[in-house]
Design brief:
By secondary structure, this protein is of the alpha/beta class. It folds into 2 domains: about 130 residues, Rossmann fold, CATH 3.40.50; about 220 residues, Dihydrodipicolinate Reductase, domain 2, CATH 3.30.360. Helix content is about 40%, strand content about 20%. It contains 11 helices and 14 strands. The strands form 2 sheets. It has an 8-stranded mixed beta sheet, with helices on one face. It starts with 15 loop residues before the first strand and ends with a helix. The N terminus is likely disordered.
């Protein structure tokens, strides 16, 4: 429990001490407010960021009688006795390095998606998790914990033969939704030059490793943009797609706009008995258009997803079906107003307390990079 050795004292309270690494946008808008609301389950005990101002700002937003400690050292946070769970919300380039420090300190680890940008870093996390005993890492795919998505996974099993599916994620700028979130986040630029240079260097290395070394794809402005956008935005959709209908066999079509630097992509995934149309993109329209729709012979199941940055927006499931008497029925089901991040963190708490393996493991997350590889190779050919 709590990632500690069996010989160490286990807290009597079920409240989990959380150390957050990375105090940027997602931490300020999502993690701190949600952990505050779940104060009966979690207590933020430590905060870490290379920006001292970001740490202080996030510290001021923690609703607790005792303010969390702060540091610019990931290692210090990971080795703090009051930290049971290390929540990693840094730039994805440093996910593997931060996760390894936490696992070496015998802590449980939550990593915001994407797990990493390369198979190399992903495999480092998988190996470290196994060395620590396994089931010590939880990857943050909040859409897969939305009540409607969980219901849809079960509902799709009743479809029978899947004939076709659509996966869509076209959104406006996140700043639009963040600006209406009521969280008033702030950005800071008090970064040390050495930290900025380290990020730039690691990002360049990741792109070269992922594209050239692992996939044999040339690094261009277009492939760089595509890899970064799809690994961050696309990992939401691809991960959910995998859980609801499994892994695709291949990519049989890809839009030519991917090679021109356009922020829109569309592809056709081949499954054994059907295909999936995939659309993803970012524009300047203030709307969030994300869904997964599965078509059978007499039933269609659709999951509709809203922005995660405005709290309490429900994910819904729409069922369209022909009944045995030949009549048509369309149902919209909203099981709860609890947002996916809150439901995900409740699942995190259950995982910490029970020690059971989560469904969103590092090995599970690796499959997203495999699908991204299919997409990149389809563009390159």
């Amino acid at each position: 429990m709590f990632g500690m050795n069996p010989t160490e004292a286990i807290p009597d309270s079920p409240i989990v001490g959380v150390g957050i690494v990375g105090c940027g946008l997602v931490t300020q808008v999502v993690h701190v407010p949600t952990l505050n609301l779940l104060s009966h389950l979690f207590h933020i005990t430590y905060l870490c960021d290379v920006s001292e101002n970001a740490v202080k700002h996030s510290q001021s937003r923690v609703a607790s009688a005792s303010r969390p400690k702060t540091t610019q050292s990931v290692e210090e946070l990971c080795n703090a006795p009051e930290v049971h769970l290390v929540l990693i919300a840094t730039n994805h380039a440093f996910h593997a390095t931060d996760a390894l420090l936490a696992l070496q300190a015998k802590k449980l680890v939550f990593i915001e998606k994407p797990i990493a940008l390369t198979l190399q870093d992903t495999d480092r996390i998988i190996a470290a998790d196994k060395a620590a005993g396994g089931s010590k890492v939880f990857i943050g795919y909040m859409r897969r914990y939305a009540a409607a998505f969980v219901d849809a996974v079960k509902e799709v099993r009743s479809i029978g033969q899947i004939r076709y599916a659509r996966v869509r994620d076209i959104i406006g700028p996140n700043s639009i939704f963040v600006g209406q979130s009521g969280t008033y986040p702030r950005t800071f630029n008090d970064y040390r030059e050495v930290d900025s240079e380290a990020l730039q260097m690691k990002t360049r290395e990741d792109v070269a490793q992922a594209l050239q070394v692992e996939l044999g794809v040339s690094v261009t402005k277009g492939t760089d943009l595509m890899w970064h956008t799809l690994s961050m935005l696309g990992s939401h959709d691809l991960s959910a797609m995998r859980e609801i209908i499994g892994m695709p066999k291949s990519v049989v079509g890809f839009s030519p706009c991917a090679t021109t630097g356009s922020p829109f992509w569309s592809a056709i995934f081949q499954y054994p008995d059907f295909v999936v149309a995939y659309e993803s993109g970012v524009d300047q329209v203030a709307r969030f258009d994300a869904s997964i729709e599965i078509f059978g012979d007499t039933k269609t199941v659709k999951v509709c997803i809203d922005t995660p940055f405005v709290k309490g927006l429900p994910t819904t499931m729409i069922i369209k079906e022909t009944l045995p008497d030949g009549s048509y029925r369309e149902s919209t089901i909203r099981r709860t107003y609890e947002d996916p991040f809150a439901l995900e963190l409740k699942a995190v708490h259950e995982w910490v307390v029970s020690g059971k393996t989560p469904k969103t493991t590092p090995s599970d997350a690796r499959q997203d990079l495999e699908i991204l590889g299919m997409l990149m190779k389809a563009v390159a050919t």
